[in-house]
Structure formats: structure tokens, C-alpha cells
Amino acid sequence: MNSKSDEIQMKTNDHKKLGRELDLFTFSDTVGKGLPLWTPKGASIRRELERYIVDEEIKRGYSHVYTPDIAKLDLYKKSGHYPYYKDSMYSPIEIEDEEFMLRPMTCPHHFELYLDKPKSYRELPVRYAELAKLYRFEKSGELMGLQRVRSFCLADAHIICMKDQAKDEVSKVLDLIEDIAKTLGLIKDKDYSYRLSLGDRSDDKKYFKDDAAWDKAEEVLREVLISRESKFKEVDGEAAFYGPKIDIQMVNTNGKEDTAFTVQYDFVMPKRFSLKYINENNEEIEPVVVHRSSIGAIERIIAFLIEKYEGYFPTWLNPVQVKILPVSEKHNQYAMKVLYKLKEKNIRVEIDERNETLGAKIRNSQNEKVSYMVIIGEKEETSETINVRKRGQKESVDMNISDFIHDLKKEIEEKSIN
Ligand SMILES: [Zn+2]
Questions:
Q1: Domain match, 297 and 331 both
Q2: If both were cysteines, with which of 218, 220, 261, 331 could 248 make a disulfide (CB 3.0 to 4.6 Å apart)?
Q3: What is the pTM (predicted TM-score) of this model?
């Protein structure tokens, strides 16, 4: 490919451009820069993705919770986030002599939830997960589509466990990340890669002084990666202030590498929040915390997926799974009957009832990148069948409605990537 066609390629799959063409999300200056508005179509992709993540996490022993988007400033002072994140947080809101913050992270909320009741070692690991709406102040010049926004939703979790459970927990997190990535069609070492981010021990501002604890934490993460035979690179100075992390790096369509998800080993927050569990001998012991995201920020992963699929979403994620095209208005009534049969089975279906030629309707559906076109004319109505054309295929097939629904439901359930 020469450089000119590379350039065209870059422009055609840009998520901002496709997002507009496919009507997935928008921004309004009156709402504010970097605050995305999801259209019904974009929202249906997001909802499918969120349902999948929540179900998958619950299956693997996570407890999904809800905590508020706003909290007292004192909470972030207690966690120690405030001095580090001050510049990327929104200014405090003052009400009744108290200061509140729009939350930039979920961690301290989950720790306060943990503290609600004393925990026995038998209850560990506690795995709190949340689709958490977070707010960070990004400079307006750095905002970019869904990739860099000021309000986003993080598929977040905090695993509170005994020290000797940490390695196993981190490994299970990587299993989850790899399984989700596979479902989405992301290939390890091509679409994403591991980075072990270590603390810069000469930087007192970014580095919590405790050499022994850092050594231990780095060793845990490194050993997990080695035992899984995962390729990774080590980078200094990219850790969180409370510990080292494994970053899952992705490259976007403009060739820029970004951290998509992280797994962090934290030995600082348990001290700050006095997190404890009671061991077999009735003693209070300090656990460790693994912060992790299974899929990162929903906005950022969707931006990535739009570009990866070039707008051709697999059926399970596609906002319009089926488009019904009556050949003429005469067949609208039968077409509506078919529509309701599909809707009843939770299939996302639309009908093109406009007084247009079939050719125009087909072209329009192709531009919308729908998964299936169902064409309905005289022959179909008389035989009570449908004519089905799958995206990307020239041939269409005659089918019974119930057979079509059966096959389609199977494809959606299996989350096939066409
Ligand atoms: Zn956290």
C-alpha cells in the first residue's frame, strides 16, 4: 500500500468520522466539551458491551456494586489521590460548608464499602466491580472524540485479598482480559500487548517510599507474566503512586499507543484506609488490593472497536441487526408482521417503509452496515417466507422466519465475529 492510500485508509476508519456517519454519538457545546452524548444506536452498542462485561464478571466471582459519582473531598484526601490528581480533577463544589468532588476514580468508594462490616479471611478475596462513571479534567486541546473525554465509564474493580492470594488473583484478571479481548476479536501481541510499569524510585512525589514493598509487588506482577509465558516490556516511571502495574497497551488508528486497561498491585491504600481481615487466630491482618479494569473505559474501547471493525460491527453488537425492506408499499403489512416476530425475540430490527426503489433501500442499508437485509415481495408474502441477504454476501436465500430467528439468535449468543 502506498502512503496516499494509507492516508485514505486512516481517514475512512477514524472513529469520529464513522461515529457521525453511523449516528453513534455526538457532542454539544452547550452540554460541554469532551462530554459525549450517546444516540440510541451508540447506546445499544454500549449496553450490549456492558451487559456482557457484568455477566462475565459475575460468573467469575465479582460482586457488582453501585457507589455515587460524587463524594466529599475528604475521601480523596484520605486516599491520598487528591495531591496527585488535583490538576486533573474538577474543582470542589461547596454545599452546606462541605466540599464535594466529582469522582475521578472509584477506589476509595469501594474501600469505604469494604469497611462497612468486619471481614473474615473466609470471605476473601472480596471482588467489588462497578461500571463507574468518572470525571477528569482534560485540557480542551487534548480532547479527542471518544478516546479522550472528560466524562467516562470505567469497567472498574478492586480485589481485596490476602497477600498469598495476590498472584492467583492477578493471573485470573489476565485470564478475564484475554477472554474478553478474544470475544472482541483483539489479538494478543498485535492489537494489544503487556507492559510492566515500574515505579521511579528517585521520584519522591510519584513514589511511595517503601522499597521492600515495591520489590515484593514488582516481583508478584513479573512472576505472573513469566508463569503465563506472556511477552511484556518493562518501563520505569509509569507506575501508580501506590504500586506497580501491568498495563494493557493498544495502538489506535493514528498509530498512537495508549493504555487501555490496567492491573495494579497496591500496598498503600490498605494502610491509608486501615483495611483489615480477621485470620484463623482471630488477629487483624492487612490485606492487599488489586485494582483492575477488565475493558478499560467504555468510551475508549468503543472508539477502538469502531476503528477496528471499520463500522462493520459483529451482529451481537450491531445497532441494527436486521433491516426489513418491503419491495413496495403493498407488502408493508406483511413486513410489519415479520418485524414484530423479530422484535419479540429481542432482535434489533428496523423497517424501511419509504416509497423508494428496492435498489435505493439496499444501498441505504449497506451504508448503515446492517448485519442482515430481509427482502419482502409478492413471492415471500404468498409463501409466508422471507428473502435474507447477509452483509458482505452477494447471494440471498429464501428462509422460514423461524429458521432465520433460530440461526440469528445462535449467532448473537455465540458473539460470532462474522
Ligand atoms: Zn482503583
A1: no
A2: 261
A3: 0.91
